[in-house]
Amino acid sequence: MSDTPIIDLQNLEKRFGKFTAVSNVSLSLRQGEFFSLLGPSGCGKTTVLRMIAGFQEPSSGQVLIDGQDMSDIPANKRPTNMVFQSYAIFPHLNVGDNVAYGLRGRGIARTEIDQRVSEALDMVELGGLQSRRATELSGGQRQRVALARALVMRPKVLLLDEPLSALDKNLREQMQFEMRHLQQSLGITFVMVTHDQYEAMTMSDRIGVMFNGELVQVDAPNVLYARPRNRAVANFIGGMNFLPADAKEDASGALDVTMPGFGRMRIDQNPNVTARSAQALVGIRPEQLEIAADRPADYDAVAKGTVRDVAFYGENIHYRVLLDGVETPIAASVPNYFHSIDFKPGDAVWLGVQSASVIDLGRDS
Amino acid sequence: MKRANGLLIYTTLYLAFLYLPVLLLPLFSFNDGTIVAFPIKGWTLDWYRQLGAQDTLLNALGNSLIVGITTALLATSMGLFAARAYVRNRFPGKEASEGLVMLPLVIPGIIVASSMLVLFISIGLKPSLTAVILGHSFLALPFSVSIMKSAFDDFDASLEEAAYDLGSTVLETFRRVTLPVVAPGIVSSFLVTFTVSFDEFVLAFFLSGNEPTLPVYIWSQIRFPAKLPNTLALGSVLLLASVLLLVVAEYFRRRSSSKSA
Amino acid sequence: MFKLRSDTSRGLTLAAPATLYVGLLVAAPLVILVAYSMWTQTYVSIDRTPTWANYREALTDPLVRHLMIRSILIAGAVTVATVLTAYPIAYFIAFRARKKTLWLLLITIPFWSSYLLRVFAWKLILGFNGVMNSALMVTGMIDEPLTFLLYNEFAVVLTLAHAWAPFAILPIYVSLQKIDPSLLEAATDLGNGAVARFLRVTLPLTIPGIIAASLIIFIPTVGDYVTPSLVGGSDGKMIANLIQVQFGAANNWPLGATLSLLAMLAVGFVALVFALGLTAAGRRIR
């Protein structure tokens, strides 16, 4: 066990002609980490994954795996294995032969191959299905075969390209837990590419958020949620109200923030607020807002407004409230648990927020 | 990179092999001599000039045109309807039917020819252009069906539904929506089936009786060395015509698939 | 319900003409061919007393057996030669070429010229005083014309390998094209180099294409008689030449019908064995 990162990306860049798909990505992953690359489609996350696997050559920069430079090592010689988005199950082979595929190329004794294949299949709960034909598998089973086929190779790093996107919602949620569990029990580093924020948050130790080829923020899911670095990240992960604000630092080091509708608020113990610019952008998560018919007490700032629409989400109720004198409506979400809260469009309401819930998003740009 | 280059060289040589015989015919059709061998003696257009004066040839050409056009009409209309059913409708026996219409592609020519001859004689149909047309339509049908199938494949079914929805009758929809959209496919199918018929020899040889088509005429000329240059000239003209037709057909096929894409 | 029924009936109506047409022209001649094969050609007319005599004659005649076996061997050689030479071309177009349609068009254009003329061109190329010999002599590469070029099995195989090229390239190209690129990446990811990947993934997945190409070449080739009569000489004659003679000069239609049917059976049998064998072989690749 050493401190060498299992994966070390150094100033990785990929250009296709004039288009820069990945620009200057540097990233170190710890051994045994479950890491997700999250971003909208076309943000370059899959290209990063494919450069780690060796299917694409970086235009500049390096990929190091376990301290070793991969520049001259072709995909078939790298200590990584991949679960493909389409699963890429060989249609001409049965389940057992699919899982044994990589081992057979290595001159391993047949008895050992058989044993490792059946262990791998047990691991993904497909024990005994060796002779099932690839064409007879359900989507979930294909995903498990793809996992077993890659894990049986005992890679140093398992790469997963949108591994759950082809499954329906219930199966997807079940597989999220299973894969997380598998990863923890095996201790193999997983690198997953996904565009689904919930998937990334439920499964990962850390998440790297990418936009337009750049790695914008790398953090644990809870940190990412609480302290998104900028508007793009905040917008991509969870819902967020964006408010332009005037900010002033007072003599005691606390911040005096003026937000439209809410007026002035003193923030002295919020670690999220760091910028001291005069024109700032702040964010408030909808679920951090209190909504009430009467002016709520014990809040650092309150605003008066009118309910514009109501949407019922099952576990939550979402309101959009027009604050007096503010054009953009503010979203507030309330757990359905509070049956007593039942506003209708047109009702006059109060919103309340605590200073700790205000996220500084830097300059308003 | 090296492997890709090796493959490219091989492919180029292979293309040369494919084009060699096809390009030799025109080359020697301008040769001022009756022996087809190097060196070329000189250049002449005589062989082409003589073609126009040969009645049997013109007669055979006329026969081939009649057969080709009728075959193209028959095969394309059957193919049009069948392809629409295969792409749009579900009905019992669909797969069997789709397989059956492709069968003419894989039956040995001699067997098709001999069995049709026997059949036509048995039902009292003497070898004639009619017999050739019936036979050629059989051979050309798989080509028409596959071309029309791809034309319908590329054509969004909701276009037809939209037309019904807007109040068109079935016939009107077919005329105003379906037909214009698949028209390039129809043209392409027509040209291809025409070419199939125009070039076909074995069936025509068995079924044409005393009304030879052009390939049957050429077959009869091949035996006479003195007629060789004429045959080469004729072959070159046919070659050019076929290639032109096919290029036009390809143009229409492309148009049919790009239009709906 | 109404929609479903109209869908079905419209489908049946539209598909009927083509289906009936092909069905009739396949079934009716077959029936009549079978009938003829059991009749006897007397001097000018046909004796319609059922008999197995034609079959007995065909099956015991050494010439028939010889031609039948040779036809199948030649057709087999043509099939193997064509598929082997065509596969790299299909591979090139599917995986390496940038303008795929242009290449496909280039491959198919020569084949829209008359088949008869193409075979004839080969006769001119390979002949004793032909293009090849004269070209070689003009350039001084040989002194005497080569005699082994024309009028033998080689000429037949060469000519037909040329004639069938697109019929081999297209089905193989289609099956290569259908391969999901991620399957190839998966093979690489699991440790295969280019050769192992080709043998373990690409090749087995293109077996349907190879079978289609082989059948579309093999079956018609057994029944070809233009090529053997133009470039085959006496060494290259095939069963179709004999059938043609029965319907032509020999005027023995019952025997011709019998030979046609036997040829069809033999071809069908060999094709079936071949297709099953290749499929089974493909299954063993793991």
TrEMBL record, chain A:
GO cellular component terms listed in the entry, alphabetical order: ATP-binding cassette (ABC) transporter complex
Enzyme class, first EC level, given as a word: translocase
InterPro entries listed in its UniProt record: AAA+_ATPase, ABC_SmlMolc_Importer, ABC_transporter-like_ATP-bd, ABC_transporter-like_CS, Mo/tungstate-bd_C_term_dom, P-loop_NTPase, PotA-like, Transp-assoc_OB_typ2
Reactions mediated catalytically: ATP + H2O + polyamine-[polyamine-binding protein]Side 1 = ADP + phosphate + polyamineSide 2 + [polyamine-binding protein]Side 1
Keywords: ATP-binding, Cell membrane, Membrane, Nucleotide-binding, Translocase, Transport
UniProt key word Ribosomal protein: no
ABC transporter domain mapped to chain residues: 7-237
Subunit structure and binding partners: The complex is composed of two ATP-binding proteins (PotA), two transmembrane proteins (PotB and PotC) and a solute-binding protein (PotD).
UniProt protein name: Spermidine/putrescine import ATP-binding protein PotA
Organism name: Roseovarius nubinhibens (strain ATCC BAA-591 / DSM 15170 / ISM)
Automatic annotation (TrEMBL), chain B:
GO biological process: transmembrane transport
Upper taxonomic lineage: Bacteria, Pseudomonadati, Pseudomonadota, Alphaproteobacteria, Rhodobacterales
Membrane topology, record value: Multi-pass membrane protein
Keyword Repressor: no
Protein name in UniProt: ABC spermidine/putrescine transporter, inner membrane subunit
Alphabetical list of InterPro entries matching this protein: Bact_Polyamine_Transport (IPR051789), MetI-like (IPR000515), MetI-like_sf (IPR035906)
Listed PROSITE patterns: ABC_TM1 (PS50928)
Stretches that traverse the bilayer: 7-28, 65-87, 99-123, 129-148, 181-207, 232-252
Cross-referenced PANTHER family: PUTRESCINE TRANSPORT SYSTEM PERMEASE PROTEIN POTI
Domain of life, source organism: Bacteria
Keyword Glycosyltransferase recorded: no
Cross-referenced Pfam families: BPD_transp_1
Record's keyword terms, sorted: Cell membrane, Membrane, Transmembrane, Transmembrane helix, Transport
Residue ranges of every copy of the ABC transmembrane type-1 domain listed in the record: 61-249
Cellular compartments annotated: Cell membrane
Gene Ontology terms: cellular component: plasma membrane
Family that this chain belongs to: Belongs to the binding-protein-dependent transport system permease family. CysTW subfamily.
Principal localisation: membrane
TrEMBL record, chain C:
GO CC terms: plasma membrane
Spans through the membrane: 20-39, 72-95, 101-117, 154-176, 197-219, 261-281
PROSITE patterns, alphabetized: ABC_TM1 (PS50928)
Record bears the keyword 4Fe-4S: no
Topology relative to the membrane: Multi-pass membrane protein
Protein localization: Cell membrane
Keyword Zinc included in the entry's annotation: no
Keywords assigned by UniProt, alphabetized: Cell membrane, Membrane, Transmembrane, Transmembrane helix, Transport
Gene Ontology biological-process entries: transmembrane transport
Pfam families assigned: BPD_transp_1
Residue ranges constituting the ABC transmembrane type-1 domain according to the UniProt record: 68-274
Family that this chain belongs to: Belongs to the binding-protein-dependent transport system permease family. CysTW subfamily.
UniProt protein name: Spermidine/putrescine ABC transporter, permease protein
Organism of origin: Roseovarius nubinhibens (strain ATCC BAA-591 / DSM 15170 / ISM)
Phylogenetic classification of the source organism: Bacteria, Pseudomonadati, Pseudomonadota, Alphaproteobacteria, Rhodobacterales
